From TrEMBL:
Protein kinase domain residues: 54-327
UniProt entry keywords in alphabetical sequence: Membrane, Transmembrane, Transmembrane helix
Species this protein is from: Penstemon davidsonii
Protein name stated in the entry: Protein kinase domain-containing protein
Residues that span the membrane, as ranges: 6-22
PROSITE patterns listed in its UniProt record: PROTEIN_KINASE_DOM (PS50011), PROTEIN_KINASE_ST (PS00108)
Record InterPro entries: Kinase-like_dom_sf (IPR011009), LRR_receptor-like_kinase (IPR051564), Prot_kinase_dom (IPR000719), Ser/Thr_kinase_AS (IPR008271)
Amino acid sequence: MPPIAFIIFASIIVILLLRYHARKSLLSPPSNSPLGLAHERVSYYELLRATNNLDQVNLIGRGSLGSVYKGIFSNGTTAAVKVFDLDVQGALKSFDIECQILRSIRHRILVKVITSCSNLDFKALVMEYMPKGNLDQWLYSQNYFLNIAQRLGIMIDVASAIEYLHQDNSLPIVHCDLKPSNIILNEDMVARVGDFGIAKLLTNDRRMELTKTLGTIGYMAPKYGSEGLISTSVDVYSYGILLMETFTRKKATNEMFLGQLTLRSWVFGSLPNGIAKIVDVDLFNVDRENIRAKHEMLLTLIIELALECTTDSPEERLNIKDVSIRLKKIKTGVQEQQNRGRLNE
């Protein structure tokens, strides 16, 4: 074969091989999962089959950067498939951040990721399926109800997860977006924290960082929202707002909160004698006056704790470990009342 013909032939072979590998990358994730997990890899087409081509019937939830679908895979496994909308600015970065964060954490109260699917045009995470939905659904759907003990248990679970992120991981992790829709519930109503799309991994020598990526309005700490200043106290503030919302059943983004009136200022204004006017009315669905008084005492302790988590000054906020300890003490009081048959179920 003449040299020129050989060069042309070799070039064609190279082009065909490149096209083959490029097409192959669109059909399946890369050989090394970005999560570094040893689980069986899943292809793009298998994700489509599992979710019936991302059918809306299988839609579990939708966020600003993508959607989550229920998927049933060929081996019978049911999982949640989080598909990132790559047309939205920040979605690709969010996928990379979640992969980085989730690769470094293992905790029973954090949503477990099974594997990922990643190619040029498609990014998705395959996660454990949580059949009870999220806290937002349980608080605001007419078909669900959580009693005091259940709400308290959920918030203790969340505090435990945040404590792990802040103190028990090799490097501190700030979730940055705690809110009811990111608190997922398993079949036993155990809460797990999910969605690490804007989380920050702090270094040992820097306990505070700046960011341009902000969390959800109503849940952001003041300096986080105004200056983009990130530290573990940011999560404590959001946790305090979440605690208030869980027991008042009033969204931090409720239209009643305008101008200077916020969920925190509304709650603060109710103390010390107006707790019954702000908490979820269903928690006071009892007839006996002495039982109502017990409810008021426990709920006041919870709300006071939430207010301590949400002070304007980050330095004055509680440590999440101390929050967890105090909630567990309150839970002991709740259990004592339950044992005497004095709490509504």
